[in-house]
Amino acid sequence: MAGKCEWFIPDAYYPETDNGSYVSHEAVCVLNTGDEDAHLEFTLYFEDREPKTGFTAVCGARRTAHVRMDRIVNADGSKVERGVPYAMYVKSDVPVVVQYSRLDTTQSEMSFMGVMAH
Fold first, then answer.
1. C-alpha–C-alpha distance, residues 99 and 7, integer Å
2. Of 12, 62, 92, 109, which has the fewest CB atoms closer than 10 Å, so is most exposed?
3. Could you give the CA distance from residue 87 to residue 51 in angstroms, rounded to a whole number?
4. Which neighbouring-strand residues pair with 102?
5. Are 100 and 26 a contacting pair, CB within 8 Å?
6. For strand 52-59 and strand 86-104, is the pairing parallel, antiparallel, or unpaired?
7. Which residues contact 109 (CB under 8 A, 6 or more apart)?
């Protein structure tokens, strides 16, 4: 089974604005090649405040999941804030592979970034 149970994404950012009908967003892309569902926990770290916890998602066995960080809500009802840099710790109860991607539509020349988590 490929993957590991802990992943770190040090450069996360949900852009503040959108350009027309294209919406800026970011996603944590998860690949689960195992035979059990992966239960994921996300902890968000900031430069100037305490971490936010309670964000969860599931990636089914032998499936992929694209967890949109602009849509996820934690147990307290908090969302990811726009325009605030942060980092992520992703913990899974079974080994998975994690990639991070960001679509920035703040300018007419949109940019996309995709990187493997560490």
1. 9
2. 109
3. 9
4. 26, 113
5. yes
6. unpaired
7. none
For 5, the token pair is 């149970």
Taking a C-beta distance cutoff of 8 angstroms, is the pair 9, 30 a contact? no
Task: Say if CB 14 and CB 80 are below 8 A apart.
Answer: yes
CA dist., res. 114 & res. 11, Å (int): 11
Whether the full predicted model's pTM is greater than 0.90, yes or no, is no
**Paired tokens of 89:** 């710790």
Per-chain mean pLDDT for the chain: 87
C-alpha distances in Å from residue 16, one per residue of 19, 35, 105: 10, 39, 9
| Calpha distance 22→75 (Å, rounded) | 29
The structural domains of the chain, ordered by start, are 4-116 (2.60.290.11)
- Alpha-helix residue ranges (DSSP H) falling in the chain: none
What percent of the chain has a predicted confidence (pLDDT) above 90? 63
pLDDT at 95 over 80: yes
Structure tokens, 97: 């592979």
Residue owning tokens 């090649």 = 33
